[in-house]
Design goal:
CoA-ligase activity; elongated; single chain; 9-stranded mixed beta sheet; alpha/beta; 31 helices; 54 strands; Rossmann fold; 29% helix; Luciferase, domain 3; disordered N terminus
């Protein structure tokens, strides 16, 4: 997003580059003075870089502290021009993005400056994203929670460090540990040099990683100022100290852990540190004790500052006045204020509050995240830092703490909206759907009683149309068949509470069986006919059905499985022709006159609304599915809500004809079947999706509505067949089971002529049906709707349990009469999911806006959604690990436009063995159901990186076309880029670019020899005025306190202003 350089102050006055001499209009708004100007009349950052490299031509700009290799400005210019030529030849132009994944090395600024010449944006990738993580924060918190009282639990979270700082006696140095924590929370405390000495005599030690904002921007600043930098790719004690001694380092950028090393390590005394004159410490506050210890030991000036990626570099810096504990005063061109975080009231000197800053160094915004940008930069241009501090009478700032109430989750930050929500009580933040008018639990004693009444009430209507055969069934026939089958159950000893299994595709006999069970109070469990023998055995053992009904597709497998379980009394085949000897056929039961009792002899089942009506299988993240117990009360409550919703949306006499292709063994499909029957609605049934059959059923039967899942919506949006059928009867589409993108939703709306609305919803097996739906006339693209009638929802921080307000993403939790009883035979899982107050924790991340519309953001669970089916990665990983030729494995979801996600396996082979992709795919196919198979493929790697997802997140966010990468990161980058379509090429850089893992990549040295990479120098320059604001120089990653980082967009002007301040 574009942020204007001219910005309003709180008094309504404005400041700009043309109005730099003004003072602050309010004594409590501090101003750092006018902007310096570094542009020298140039139109772009690239032109300035080119000019400076030419000016300092024969000076040394970089020295590799490991190899001693030197790089002069002339060589830097030449190499960076060649990189620009490569990018230009590959079609990169102004506004395109490249990735740069490398440790500190000589090629890093060459790639960087080459991109500047073209106006190409650079997105540095954190090299450490590939580090293994074997212990999670959640595991530590849960471990301590079991052993400590609530007051002593880890409410502040867990941060992982390489080493706990201790003194020689073993006592933990908690102040230094605090510095480590602050460094991990955010790179905020930055500085610049103020030593009065010739630049040519200054030698900087560059050990801060250049893929961080702190390191990258100081690299640019030193290079463009004619200052020599000695680079180190990582910290090693002897190398660090010997570089200071050998290269006579005069200044250093350091972080608090390195300051602790300089203050306390005995090795420091063995090296000559006398040339060091100044240390600028950043990334976290530095204690007074450590500052004084380093200053006294080495005899240097130590300065602190404050900044963050969002403000390009330092906003505060110790300059002329140096007070212990202070992070300095405002830099030129920047404004600062301190506000009360609750009221937004402006505070004066020595009054702690949230620090806010405004000026030309403030970022343009977060890429692809307008909401986070609006939450961080308010309408007056003030950037809300989320840090607590104050200024004294001399304008010196002091940092006190983080704003604890500032919640950041997965890169989302809430400031202006979040602070407003802090005024709300927890009760105000709980969203309630309102009281319903239809409560079936007060009208009937059982689900069977309501069903019998409604079947009688609608008996002359068409209830179900078999879309495959054209057969039409009235509600009268459904009732008669269900009563007949109920009598069969009674005479064969099936009673209330017993379990009946169904394993079948959608077909006419399916509802007869369900409704017969309800009429006697029996429990139905559905078995996915795609299950493998392993999964089927698990489901049957868990639910223990006495009778199982199955279609011709699965009856032989059912008969084989039944021999293992003595509690199974009968297998009954749907249809009229047995395909297995001596098996009971469904049509024979319907023809048997022994079960044809007069309707008036029907007796309603015993009244027990807490009785299980359904046991539905719900996939967890850890393997085999759990059995969700849905009671008669759950279903009656859901049906009441459905009636009230229909009354809100439709006229009483409006005819609804609904096409149902969702499998009835899935809770979504089954509950829509039951709800339609109770409501007297005509349902068109299809056993499977076939393109022409699906479309012809809409046309032939004049379907007004259809239950859909996202892959079907993609078909409706894009397939050319859709235009060949008359779909004008369709009025609304309901989409569930997985989030639907706004783009697909809009495409379907535009394509189908009379479509009035696409209604999304959100629900799980554990909530019986949807707990969120667009049940009112108003809809919002991308929203899954509002809270269901009679239901409460709260959004909580998943780490602390704190209730969040509007526009604050967190875990969705629900409470209401439709929440399941629990998981059958798994009390531990029930307790983990439903807390002591009755709140069901979904594991899904979302938020609600000011209108109480909900939006789904992400899943805390690691489930893969394949065509709306849930695939637990852990189950597939466990099976892969059971293969004798596999040493390690990980499974993720590969994005797919049609299916949503495809299971993709990363595999590490055992040493000295050979195994093929097909062998592994066949192995898994023999152990899991069809939709869990490895359709995304198998990829072999040397090691499973435990957070490849962070690399993928950054690439998805920045969409680079080319990535320049060093050998140490090639393997991880190669794996991830297969899932990022924007990337055209990976180019290996550095001295190890010819290593084994780079053999299939082009290297920079090879490209240098290619004569086609040559262009006119004028092509490097950006042609138009105003590019300083419009051109993006960097997208730097800024991590919140939890979750994946946000991409901070910094323009040429942001960089130039920061560099001017540095000079």
């Amino acid at each position: 997003m574009e942020l204007p350089i001219t910005t309003a102050t709180s008094s309504g006055k404005v400041f700009s580059r043309a109005n730099q001499e003004m003072t602050s209009p309010n004594k409590n708004i501090l101003y750092g003075g006018p902007d310096p100007d570094i542009t020298e009349g140039e139109e772009s950052l690239g032109e300035l870089v080119l000019k400076r490299c030419t000016h300092y031509s024969e000076q040394i700009v970089l020295i590799d502290g490991v190899t001693s290799e030197e790089l002069k400005y002339r060589e830097l210019k030449e190499r960076s021009i060649r990189y620009a030529e490569i990018m230009h030849a590959e079609g990169l132009r102004e506004g395109d993005v490249i990735g740069l994944c490398s440790e500190n090395r000589l090629d890093f600024p060459c790639v960087l400056f080459g991109a500047f010449y073209l106006g190409v944006t650079v997105a540095p990738l954190n090299l450490t994203y590939s580090d293994k993580i074997q212990l999670t924060e959640k595991e530590v918190i849960e471990f301590v929670a079991k052993k400590a009282s609530p007051a002593k639990r880890l409410h502040g979270g867990v941060k992982f460090v390489e080493e706990i700082p201790k003194n020689p006696s073993g006592k933990i140095l908690r102040r230094e540990l605090r510095s480590k924590l602050n460094q991990m929370l955010k790179s905020k405390f930055l500085g610049v040099f103020t030593v009065d000495m010739p630049r040519k005599d200054m030698v900087i030690l560059g050990i801060i990683p250049w893929f961080h904002a702190f390191g990258c921007l100081t690299l640019c600043g030193m290079s463009l100022s004619g200052i020599r930098t000695v680079l180190l790719p990582k910290f090693e004690e002897f190398l660090f100290l010997s570089c200071i001694e050998n290269y006579k380092i005069t200044q250093m950028f350091l972080v608090p852990p390195l300051m602790v090393f300089l203050a306390k390590h005995p090795l420091v005394d063995n090296y000559d540190m006398s040339t060091v004159q100044e240390i600028i410490c950043g990334a976290a506050p530095l204690s007074k004790e450590i500052e004084e210890a380093v200053s006294n030991r080495i005899g240097v000036v130590v300065r602190q500052g404050y900044g963050m990626s969002e403000m390009t570099l330092s906003t505060l810096l110790q300059t002329n006045i140096k007070k212990p504990g202070s992070v300095g005063d405002l830099r030129p061109g920047m404004w600062g204020k301190v506000i009360d975080p609750d009221s937004g009231r402006l505070l004066g000197p020595n009054q702690p509050g949230e620090l806010c800053f405004k000026g030309s160094q403030n970022m343009k915004g977060y890429i692809g995240n307008d909401k986070a940008t609006r939450d961080t930069i308010d309408t007056e241009g003030w950037l809300h830092t989320g840090d607590i501090g104050y200024f004294d009478e001399e304008g010196q700032f002091f940092i006190v703490d983080r704003l604890k109430e500032l919640i950041k989750y997965k890169g989302y930050q809430s400031t202006s909206v979040g602070v407003d929500s802090l005024k709300m009580s927890d009760d105000d933040k709980i969203v309630f759907g309102g009281e319903g008018t239809t409560d079936f639990t007060k009208l009937v004693g059982s689900l069977g009683e309501l069903l019998f009444f409604q079947l009688n009430n609608n008996q002359d209507k068409i209830g179900i149309i078999d879309g495959l055969t054209g057969r039409k069934i009235t509600y009268r026939e459904i009732k008669e068949k269900a009563l007949h089958l109920a009598e069969f159950f009674r005479q064969n000893g099936i009673k209330a509470g017993d379990v009946i299994g169904i394993c079948s595709e959608n077909r006419i006999e399916f509802p007869f069986t369900i409704y017969a069970a309800f009429l006697i109070g029996a429990t139905i469990t559905t078995i996915n006919l795609l299950y493998t023998e392993r999964e089927m055995n698990h489901t049957i053992q868990l639910t223990r059905p006495k009778v199982i009904f199955g279609s011709e597709l699965v009856v032989e497998r059912l008969q084989d499985v039944s021999r293992k379980f003595s509690f199974i009394e009968k297998i009954i085949q749907y249809g009229d022709t047995p395909i297995v000897k001596r098996i009971l056929v469904f049509e024979d039961i319907l023809k048997d006159r022994r079960y044809a009792k007069p309707e008036e002899e029907h007796v309603n089942p015993p009244e027990d609304l807490n009785r299980n009506a359904l046991i539905m299988m719900s996939s967890g993240t850890t393997g085999l599915p759990k059995g969700v117990q849905i009671t008669e009360a759950n279903i009656l409550a859901t049906l009441g809500h459905s009636v009230d919703s229909r009354n809100e949306l439709y006229e009483e006499d409006e005819e609804l004809i609904i096409l149902s292709i969702i499998p009835w063994f899935h809770v979504y499909g089954l509950m829509t079947l039951i709800s339609s029957s109770i409501g007297g609605i005509t349902l068109i049934s299809l056993p499977r999706f076939e393109e022409r059959l699906f479309l012809s059923c809409i046309e032939k039967y004049k379907a007004t509505h259809s239950f859909m899942v996202p892959p079907l919506m993609v078909f409706m949006a894009k397939h050319p067949l859709v235009d060949k059928y008359d779909l004008s009867s369709l009025k609304e589409l309901y989409c569930g089971a997985a989030p639907l993108s706004k783009e697909v939703e809009n495409a379907v709306m535009a394509r189908i002529p009379n479509l009035k609305a696409i209604r999304q919803g959100f629900g799980l097996s554990e909530t019986t049906l949807s707990v969120l739906s667009t049940r009112e006339a108003k809809t919002k693209p991308g929203s899954v709707g509002i809270i269901a009638i009679g239901t409460s929802c709260k959004v909580i921080d998943p780490e602390t349990g704190k209730i969040l307000g509007p526009n604050q993403p967190g875990e969705l939790c629900f409470k209401g009469p439709q929440i399941m009883k629990g998981y059958v035979g798994n009390d531990a899982a029930t307790r983990d999911t439903i807390d002591s107050e009755g709140w069901f924790h979904t594991g899904d991340v979302g938020y609600y806006d000011e209108d109480k519309f909900f939006f789904i953001v992400d899943r805390l669970k690691e489930l893969i959604k394949y065509k709306a089916f849930q695939v637990p990665p852990a189950e597939l990983e466990a099976l892969l690990m059971s293969h004798p030729k596999i040493a390690d494995a990980a499974v993720i979801g590969l994005p797919d436009e049609i299916a949503g996600e495809l299971p993709l396996a990363f595999v590490v082979k055992q040493p000295n063995v050979e195994v093929t992709e097909q062998e592994i795919k066949d192995y898994i196919a023999g152990k899991v159901t069809n939709y869990k198979q490895l359709r995304g493929g198998v990829r072999f790697i040397d090691e499973i990186p435990k957070n490849l997802s962070e690399i993928k997140h950054v690439l998805d966010l920045t969409t680079p076309k080319i990535i320049f990468v060093t050998s140490s990161a090639i393997d991880n980058i190669k794996e991830v880029v297969k899932e990022v379509p924007s990337i055209k090429e990976i180019i290996a850089i550095g001295s190890n670019s010819s290593s084994k893992n780079a053999r299939d990549l082009r290297t920079f040295d090879e490209i240098l020899k290619d004569p086609k990479y040559k262009m006119n120098q004028r092509d490097y320059k950006l042609p138009s005025e105003g590019d300083l604001d419009s051109n993006d120089a960097f997208i730097l990653m800024s991590s919140g306190t939890t979750g994946l980082p946000k991409g901070v967009v910094l323009s040429d002007r942001n960089i130039l202003e920061a560099l001017a301040n540095l000079e």
